[in-house]
Amino acid sequence: MVQMSDPADFLEHIERRLAEGVEMxxxxxxxxxxxxxxxxxxxxxxxxxxxxxxEKGLPSLLEGNRLANLRRMYLLLDxxxxxxxxxxxxxxxxxxxxxxxxxxxxxxxxxxxxxxVKDAVITNNRDKDKTIVEEILLFHDCQQEILxxxxxxxxxxxxxxxxxFEYVPPSLSAPLSLSLFLSFSLPPSHTD
Length: 192
Prior knowledge:
This protein is mainly alpha-helical and 192 residues long. It is 70% helix and 3% strand.
């Protein structure tokens, strides 16, 4: 079923089945049957499909910033001890997105007049240079929201987010971009 359906829909299906199992034990079965029934549901519907759920579903959920579905994925995979797959996929997503942001900006390097100053390429497109830092900061804010809303600010995920943003994709003009961003963002100093 996971191969033919959207992973978010499949996670909702599993969540419903677990809720039905809880309701069934509360209404009809002996309370001692609750844990084995839920374990059977987890071992049948969730555990065998964890890797394909994450590989197929996580990128689209992250790109769409679908917090409720990310939260559902986190909570269900936590039941079977597989949140590390989400964390690894999230780190890969953040790094790829960061590289894409920088490479889109750097794709303009070499066009127009370029001056070489201390081995750094400075383009005439200063608007792009100043916005790259702002775009990265906005992306970081979005990932912080995912951390809080979907992953409960869990320590291992906080560390993964921090490590992902410490990784700096190769960019010749990253220091220049930062300095331009700061010069346009900070109020002018009044030195008389």
